[in-house]
Amino acid sequence: MWRRLEASGHWQGEIWDRRKSGEIYPKWLGISAVRDTLDQLTHYVAIFSDISERKEAQERIEFLARHDPLTGLPNRMLLADRLEQALAHADRTQSKVALLFLDLDRFKTINDSLGHPVGDALLQEITARLKASVRETDTISRLGGDEFVVVITDLEDEEIAASVAQKILEITRAPFSIGGHTLNTSISIGITLYPTDGGDFDTLLKKADIAMYHAKDAGRNTYRFFTEQMNVNALERLLIQNRLQQALEKNEFVLHYQPQVALGTGRIIGIEALIRWRNPELGLVPPDRFIPMAEENGAIVAIGDWVLREACRQARAWREDGIGTLPVAVNISTLQLQHGDFAERVLTIIAETGHDPRMLELEFTESILIQDVERVLGQVHRLKAAGITVAIDDFGTGYSSLSYLKRLDVDRLKIDRSFIRDISTDPDDAAIVRAITQMARSLRLKILAEGAETTEQTRFLLAEGCDEVQGFLYSRPLTADAFANLYRQTSGFITNLTRAPR
Questions:
Q1: Rounded to whole angstroms, what are the CA distances from 420 to 351, 433, 502?
Q2: CA torsion angle 161 163 168 174 (round to 10)
Q3: Are residues 48 and 155 located together in one domain of the fold?
Q4: pTM score > 0.85 for this model?
Q5: What per-residue confidence (pLDDT) applies to 498?
Q6: Which domain holds residue 306?
């Protein structure tokens, strides 16, 4: 500063000074030399400004550029920098690094039903618990939404990563108390290891993301390490997602129909329409492989409307061909119900196809009972007023609520096949089926068991008062023409109870 003043007569820059209170603060200082007429230095003039607020704002901007504003955790950019340093350190010490990709299970339901402030508070509570579960030398990052990443350094073996993942699962399992609500959530975790699974940030993160989805597929609230088979499955998943976009336009979907049978007589009392996807590259794709993806990308709304329209059209065609008037059951996704005026779309499709609304049964899962209940009730009551039957599918596997069942005015419960499979050998499954049938009778509801495959199962069901079934014991799902032939050949009665091949 003095050299510049002596050389040019002026200096400016940032300095730290002390207030009278003793507080240290930053200021911007400009000093100019003042000379007389003989060019002799007489004194200096200094002008300064307090830049405390500007410095704080600058530091805040720099912090936000590398951190998540809600949780204060490192963001993706800082995470990549930290991981790069961790990988370099691992190379020097011949150790391993683990990257854990965390995704909160069903966070969207909490966010949508209770509001973003509660969702944000939950994320902050999750952050606090995560910090308590790892070392200070490890890095926790929030990528956005409900996705977190934990980087664990100086690993000797993968078991340490597994123990950390298990600890995270345990500490997040305890309920959260937020804004007067008691919330329960869980986490699905995907794990990759350096150098086994990759040598850079993008590769490790991508594979950990794949492993996380496999943890979700395994039932959520668990962890999975990445394997090459997961990569193959991920590529197949990507192929399905890409082809799914054009499947409806290319008319690649078909419906198969499975008879619903009265146990006591063998009479066909209805049919369930089941979608299949026939793709030139993928072959015949079963619904459990593409329906979840269609729900993720929103395509399920258009696909579901197509299924409803095609099932109603086919039912009318059968009636005109002399097959008879049979109720047709169609599965409805929760997203369809939430999208626009669902009841109006259903009534429009019925009018377009000329199908009798009294011969249409809409099957919902129990998940419709926990979101926007009043709107759901309004939609269902409009459908019921038109004569449409309402059934709850996969009953016993979701959020059962007797009060909502009563308010929905449900006509039929369908017992999930997972309870039917072992009723002959598992006392717990037998007790569940017995309880459901007794409850249904008390509420004066029809009840149908899915997945009937053995005569032992049907004998048990009939003895417990469940007199309607569908399953391979009677018929596998059939094409429209095959079902018409079956109906004509049997005159609508399936009496030969031989187990159909899988």
A1: 37, 8, 17
A2: 170
A3: no
A4: no
A5: 40
A6: 240-411+473-490
